[in-house]
Amino acid sequence: MNKQWLAPIPPYLAVWMGLFLLNSAWGALIGFHIAILLVIAFIRPKPFITILFKSKSSTWIFASVLFCSPSGLGLYFLWNSFGIANDLPAQLHSMELNSSSWPYFIAYFALVNPLIEEYFWRGVLGNTTKKLRIGDVIYAGYHALVLYGRVHPLSILFAMAVLTFAGWLWRQMAREDDGLLAPSLGHMAADFTILLTVYRMAGS
Questions:
Q1: Which of 27, 82, 114, 131 has the lowest tally of Cβ within 10 angstroms?
Q2: Count of H helices and E strands in the chain?
Q3: CA distance 181 to 57
Q4: What pLDDT shows up at residue 45?
């Protein structure tokens, strides 16, 4: 069996363990990243890490950031439509996200996570096809673990659809721009604005 088909399993397990066994946002995030790095080391991918900082045109960078920056604003205005759990603030606090840890979590998530994810999902596991592929869905899928028990089930399906599209779009940007800088910066903008909204609406 192609090793790339097995590659997403350890990161999925790491997120599951961090969230449901350790009940720790930091445990899930750091475990997710460690699992990805171990998988990358095992499968020895062809793309060099320098692809993260490669772009042929600043137009793609501008378009990516411009498109992704309103993500948090959209979440803010649709907050009451997503069936957010009433005890979300308590859930987040129990997962070690409090007033002292939130700034560090947001900074790490927004600056480090997009680089690791883009290199893994769009670089190592990427594909140049213009069509939607199963890898786009698999990328979106682990977010369902994060959202489970925190939003309405239909909102999870909606998020899956949006994230599948985002994965496909970032993959197209990487293909057109011959690098991962544009999708990485767009990913950063999305993560940063979304987490700021969560902190503003439910942080403690």
A1: 131
A2: 11, 0
A3: 10
A4: 72
Q: CA-to-CA distance for 171 and 62, rounded, in angstroms?
A: 16
**Intervals of the chain under pLDDT 50:** 1
10 residue type, one letter = P
pLDDT of amino acid 33: 98
Domains identified in the chain, total number: 1
pLDDT at residue 23, as a whole number: 97
Give residue-wise pLDDT tens across range 89-133.
999 999 999 999 999 999 999 999 999 999 999 999 999 999 999
Q: Which two tokens stand for residue 153?
A: 């089930």
Task: State how far the Cα of 30 lies from the Cα of 27, in Å rounded to an integer.
Answer: 5
Domain range for residue 17? 3-202
Please give the distance of CA 55 from its chain centroid, rounded to a whole number. Answer: 21
Determine the Cα–Cα distance for residues 34 and 27; give it in Å rounded to an integer. Answer: 10
Q: To the nearest 10°, the Cα dihedral for 141, 107, 121, 184?
A: 130
pLDDT in tens, 71-80: 999 999 999 9
Residues 6+ apart with CB under 8 A from 170: 64, 118, 121, 122, 183, 186, 187
Distance (Å, rounded) from C-alpha 33 to C-alpha 117?
8
33: left (phi over 0), alpha (psi -120 to 50) or beta: alpha
User: What's the sign of the alpha-carbon dihedral 26, 4, 54, 74?
Assistant: negative
How many residues in total does the chain contain? 204
Using alpha carbons, select from 203, 190, 198 the residue that is nearest to residue 101. 203
